[in-house]
Amino acid sequence: MNDTVQLTFDGDVATLTIDRPDRLNALNEATLEGMADALDEARGEARVLVVTGAGEKAFAAGADISRMAEMSVEEAHAYCEQGHAVMNAVESFPAPVIAALNGYAFGGGCELALACDLRIASERAVIGQTEIDLGIVPGWGGTQRLVRLVGDETARRLVFFGERVDAQDALELDLVSEVVAHDELDEYVAGMAADLAEKPQFAMAAAKEAINEAHEMGQREGLDFERRLWSSLFGTPDQREGMDAFLNDRDPEFE
Length: 255
Ligand code: COA
Hints:
11 helices; alpha/beta; globular; 16% strand
């Protein structure tokens, strides 16, 4: 990891903070590398991962424009691959990932939020796939994940106009699932993360994987996958504990 990314733990909850506030947490190669290292470190340790940005203004104001401005096609290709690898690692992280959108989330910052499982916005958040006005298009998964989250026409509108939407509009477009007061964002997300961290870890990873596969497989194939996954959970300590707790009228205590 490097000094542009921080990874902290509070019990089973890890928080990855993009820490380049003087550049509004723009994501250059070093930051992407730091994120990849942080995700590796948190994998297997964290039962929930929160992703957020340092400072008062930004979650992440996107890919680093001053860096991109001087890139050759080959360098752009490598930067795109690096961004994709990080977003894919967030998406496939084997525990829920919550984006705490504390401010601007543009371009690659929006794409990072899209790769997370849940998006909670501060009322100060402003979100958008703004690449069109830089003469490019979303390149870290935005053309694909945005369509799935908000639907085809809304995605086209956001990408074609490069619109910057405030938190309330983002909520109406289903781009985020909740909006909270700016000062309450951290506490709210911490509460959510603590609740999720108490759920059975193995079943949670299975639930996430199955839902991710709904975007990758046809329905018949997805239902086959679900059947195999579902029965594979039987005999696990969590399944035994969850059902025994219900039958004995007590709260479950998962591993
Ligand atoms: N890449 C590189 N540097 C960035 C950046 C980015 N994506 N976004 C902001 N910065 C830098 C600014 O150049 C500025 O640097 P400086 O202090 O050396 O001038 C610094 O961060 C602060 O940004 P500034 O624009 O002065 O802040 P602001 O509050 O006036 O505006 C934004 C904030 C987010 C509205 C504005 O910075 C912006 O539109 N950024 C680009 C967003 C974008 O299109 N992202 C998609 C990239 S794919």
